[in-house]
Design brief:
By secondary structure, the chain is of the alpha/beta class. It is built from 19 helices and 13 strands. The strands form two sheets. It has a ten-stranded mixed beta sheet with strand order 9-8-7-6-5-4-10-11-12-13. A three-stranded antiparallel beta sheet has the order 1-2-3.
């Protein structure tokens, strides 16, 4: 039970640890908060009157104690919440383990997920159809469902993508109550021809193309199998599409210690015609990856570099929102903005990781996993498309509680992290324990959270209602969701 105070982006802020409420402070409010746990109201007023002569303190102190009375400040520990019932609305289909690139930071070994016997296998149509049928069964009649095509390079199995899209259309033809199917696809762009691109966009598939920056960066970080650069191939494919089609594609860049100028990268992608842009760091978790590789920001020095990069990005995003350049329409898919939205709406958007709760992933053979990152790991198998979800195995996974770790008990961000924090697969691949948070990612999460609180304070202070227009909780809560 307490309050954590800090300064970020020239703002002073306080977070109520148990509730997750946060607000901007000044010197007087900060001093009052520090005095409140050990002093009664009159004592706080007396001490502050002496330190800040001439300031009218009565109303201010009254408001702070009112917040405490309403349990928005110095809140008691939260009671255990009722167990929420799962509802699978998102399906990831790992339709191929083949990839024609060898990206330096790839976390899943080019789609093989650490399986030395894997060699370019593809998911069969029957398997994919059974997975879609199971998604509908497990969705609890949810009106919006997401199908995510994943790999490897998913366009290496483009025929299956077409089959699944058509299959979902056929399903809707037979239903009175239509399902709003949304499709997602992350591609390296090397196989994205004009014909393929137009088919995907015309059929409601949101495409994200990975392009890490100018040619020197892209070719160094994302080469073909034989070492050739991939930049020119991708650019030729993008240019084959009309401007209107290109504007509907997401430009996704991964930055590493070799490509840390994220603002330059953002502007580069924007100049190519991408309206929607996502930039995130290379993660050190993955199959067979050495954690000390230069592709990752490792150790204390790496975390400090990432903090600086995200601070620049936060300032850049803040200016973009205030200027009107960044809106809901070009940020809804962005992971940074998803976390920002959950933080802004902390009282209405909380819960747990979506793995196994609202998301399931299916491997090429039809085995089901809680999320894509666990594909190929036997201990995380939770069923198959032939037999359905194994409730016992799934419940065992869902009973893993990251926030029950001892390291979480004293963390000021624990309430916030319950909604959008630590990740099961990052924990497992970096420490072999899905429930034990990795200190590296915890530190980065806390810093990003502080930056986002500073952003919210800055934007709210200048344009009070703007964040309500940009950060729409129900549409950030699910992948691929857009305003209707």
């Amino acid at each position: 039970m307490g309050v954590h105070q800090f300064k970020i982006l020239h703002k002073s802020l306080a977070v109520d640890i148990e509730s997750g409420n946060f607000f901007e402070t000044d010197d007087v409010i900060s001093d009052a908060i520090m005095l409140m746990p050990s002093h009664v109201k009159k004592e706080v007023e007396g001490k502050l009157s002496g330190k800040y002569p001439g300031r009218k303190l009565n109303g201010l102190i009254d408001k702070l104690y009112d917040l405490k009375k309403r349990r928005a400040l110095f809140s008691p520990p939260c009671r255990k919440k009722e167990k929420l019932s799962r509802k699978i609305t998102d399906l990831t289909l790992n339709i191929t383990d083949h990839c024609n690139l060898r990206c330096k930071y790839c976390w899943n070994q080019a789609g093989t997920y650490g399986d030395s016997l894997s060699g370019g296998s593809k998911m069969r149509r029957e398997t994919a159809f059974k997975a879609v049928d199971l998604l509908i069964k497990e969705s609890g009649a949810a009106p919006d469902l997401v199908v995510d095509f994943y790999g490897g390079e998913p366009l290496a199995n483009f025929s299956l993508i077409k089959d699944v899209v058509y299959y979902c259309k056929e399903i809707n033809k037979k239903r009175k109550k239509k399902i709003n199917f949304r499709f997602l696809l992350a591609t390296n762009g090397t196989l994205l021809s004009k014909e393929i691109g137009e088919f995907l966009i015309d059929n409601n598939v949101d495409i994200a193309v990975s392009l890490d920056g100018p040619q020197s960066i892209q070719d160094a970080q994302r080469p073909f199998l034989d070492g050739r650069g991939s930049f020119n191939t991708i650019m030729n494919n993008l240019r084959s599409l009309s401007k209107d089609y290109r504007k509907r594609i997401v430009g996704r860049a991964t930055f590493t210690p070799y490509s840390m100028d994220v603002i330059k990268t953002f502007k580069f992608l924007s100049n190519l015609g991408f309206d929607r842009i996502e930039i995130c760091e290379s993660e050190k978790a993955g199959y067979g990856l050495e954690t000390d590789t230069q592709s990752f920001f490792c150790g204390k020095e790496g975390v400090e570099k990432l903090k600086g990069i995200y601070e620049k990005l936060a300032v850049f995003y803040t200016k973009g929102i205030l200027s009107g350049r960044l809106t809901y329409d070009n940020t809804y898919f962005n992971r940074f903005f998803k976390q920002l939205s959950r933080l802004y709406h902390i009282q209405s958007v909380v819960g747990t990781c979506s793995a196994g709760f609202s998301l399931m992933a299916v491997g090429q053979s039809g085995t089901i996993y809680p999320c894509t990152a666990f594909v190929g790991v036997p201990q995380f198998e939770i069923g198959s498309v032939d037999t359905g979800i194994d409730e016992k195995k799934l419940n065992a996974f869902l009973n893993i509680r990251i926030c029950s770790s001892k390291s979480c008990e004293k963390c000021w961000a624990k309430r916030i992290c319950m909604g959008c924090g630590s990740c099961y697969n990052l924990n497992y691949f970096t420490g072999k324990d899905a429930k034990e948070p990795n200190p590296y990612y915890c530190e980065l999460f806390r810093h990003k959270t502080k930056l986002m609180m500073g952003m919210i304070a800055e934007i709210s202070g200048k344009k009070n209602r703007l964040l309500d227009e940009v950060l729409i909780p129900e549409f950030y809560a699910a992948r691929g969701r857009r305003k209707h």
